[in-house]
Design a protein that fits this description.
Distance between the termini: 15 Å
CATH topology: TIM Barrel
CATH architecture: Alpha-Beta Barrel
Radius of gyration: 16 Å
Bound molecules: D-xylitol-5-phosphate, zinc ion
Strand order of the largest sheet: 1-2-3-4-5-6-7-8
Structural class: alpha/beta
Number of strands: 8
Strand content: 15-25%
Number of domains: 1
Length: 220
């Protein structure tokens, strides 16, 4: 069974000069914060890393979910932990067997998430669900905010939810990319329980109202 829906903002498309102010406004309305770390190699874009997360940690009490779109994620785990991250998620496309990465994360006291890109079949992740606090089904090809939701990934959300439930596991199913009230509703119906919205929140004229609309859409 899907758990109560939890909503996160991704700050990738926020105004980085005003990050603290934007987060202060949103913080009371969010369940967690999604932090997109990009290395310009695994994805064709650069974002930010542990120093920015450490600054945010000083002004926020939210759970920090760090999404690592990098070629060598394990090299960042210790610095991310020190910066205040709570969970690190790595791409299955980087670690086709994520056992060692999961162990390293847990050894540092971090939760562990596994991410699959739109072209990656769910079957590739299925053997590793026991390692996961989170299974992140990407609904855009990673690299940039503001892209359109790829509806074909909903089948993978359903498959993840079914297998997690049938094995009696506790992992959350997260959806990330192109989330709007409409696509969040579809993902909720498919069994997602964690929702990441970037552009729809941080570029909205009223970001708090945008979070409230998302919450209404997922029915919690
Ligand atoms: C894409 C990132 C997403 C993205 C979400 O590479 O992983 O977290 O920032 O942004 P929107 O909601 O604009 O697709
Ligand atoms: Zn992300």
């Amino acid at each position: 069974m899907a758990k109560p829906a939890r909503l996160a903002a991704s700050i990738l498309n926020a105004d980085f000069a005003r990050l603290g102010e934007e987060l202060a406004v949103l913080e009371p309305h969010l369940d967690f914060l999604h932090l997109d770390i990009m290395d310009g190699h695994f994805v064709p874009n650069l974002s930010f890393g542990p120093p920015v997360i450490a600054s945010l940690r000083r002004v926020s009490r939210l759970f920090f979910d760090a999404h690592l779109m990098v070629t060598n994620p394990m090299a960042l785990f210790a610095d991310l932990k020190a910066a205040g991250a709570d969970l690190v998620s790595v791409h299955l496309e980087v670690h086709p067997d994520p056992t060692r990465a999961a162990k390293a994360a847990r050894g540092l006291g971090l939760q562990f998430g596994l991410v699959i890109n739109p072209p990656t079949p769910f079957e590739a992740a299925a053997p590793f669900l026991e390692l996961c606090d989170l299974v992140l089904v990407m609904s855009v090809n990673p690299g940039f905010g503001g892209q359109g939701f790829i509806p074909e990934v909903l089948e993978k959300v359903e498959a993840a939810r079914m297998l997690i439930d049938s094995r009696g596991l506790a992992a959350d199913v997260e959806i990330d990319g192109g989330i709007t009230p409409e696509t969040a509703r579809l993902a909720r119906r498919a069994g997602a329980d964690a929702f990441v919205a970037g552009t729809a929140v941080v570029r909205a004229p009223d970001p708090v109202a945008a979070v409230q609309e998302l919450r209404a859409a997922v029915g919690d």
